């Protein structure tokens, strides 16, 4: 796992910027599109991504145990709200190298800033793909993002905890031996890299 905090900050910034760029063109009509996240349309996904940014920003300030920032809330303009939350979390991370992060979905334990930032990095690489897949547009991450995120994802335990409705990732799915690093990353975290499959 990456341990260089400035490097992690840069990679996370690239992942978050990618997600902002993919969400920026979303229209009101797009918000009802299905996503690779079971049961969520694009509005639900963006609300979740916004809440996670707010929660991680609170955790960077030592307030991660407060459940309120982690909860999605209705907003009049979800695209602007997402952009603001993305900017806020980046600012919060920049001064949080020595902070112990509390992340409620992982229980009461705390995590070193580097580990928490690596979680956020993986989450937003994959969620950026979710948005691209939902919109039906190409997913074109910076070349270094997938190689950085894959070993972090492979270190996430794939056990019964992933069956919980509150689990951040679903059980891993199988891929072929010729799968690309992106396909391996998605499958490791429970995504079908071929979503939504061939047109019917």
From TrEMBL:
Residue ranges occupied by any Mycothiol-dependent maleylpyruvate isomerase metal-binding domain in the UniProt entry: 17-132
InterPro entries recorded: CHP03086, DinB/YfiT-like, Maleyloyr_isom, MDMPI_metal-binding
Top-level taxon of the source organism: Bacteria
Name the record gives this protein: TIGR03086 family metal-binding protein
Organism: Actinoplanes sichuanensis
């Amino acid at each position: 796992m990456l341990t260089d905090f400035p490097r992690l900050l840069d990679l996370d910034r690239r992942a978050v910027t990618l997600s902002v760029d993919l969400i920026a063109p979303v229209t009101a009509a797009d918000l009802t599109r299905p996503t690779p996240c079971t049961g969520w349309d694009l509005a639900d996904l963006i609300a979740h991504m916004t809440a996670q940014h707010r929660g991680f920003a609170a955790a960077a300030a030592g307030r991660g145990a407060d459940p309120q920032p982690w909860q999605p809330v209705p907003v009049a303009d979800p695209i602007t709200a997402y952009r603001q939350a993305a900017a806020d979390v980046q600012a919060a991370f920049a001064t949080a190298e020595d902070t112990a992060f509390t992340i409620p979905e992982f229980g009461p334990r705390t995590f070193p800033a580097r580990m928490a930032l690596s979680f956020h990095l993986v989450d937003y690489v994959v969620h950026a793909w979710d948005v691209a897949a939902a919109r039906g547009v190409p997913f074109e991450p910076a070349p270094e993002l997938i190689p950085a995120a894959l070993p972090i994802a492979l270190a996430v335990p794939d056990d019964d905890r992933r069956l919980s409705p509150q689990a951040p990732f679903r059980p891993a799915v199988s891929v072929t031996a010729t799968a690309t690093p992106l396909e391996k990353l998605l499958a490791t975290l429970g995504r079908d890299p071929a979503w939504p499959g061939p047109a019917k």
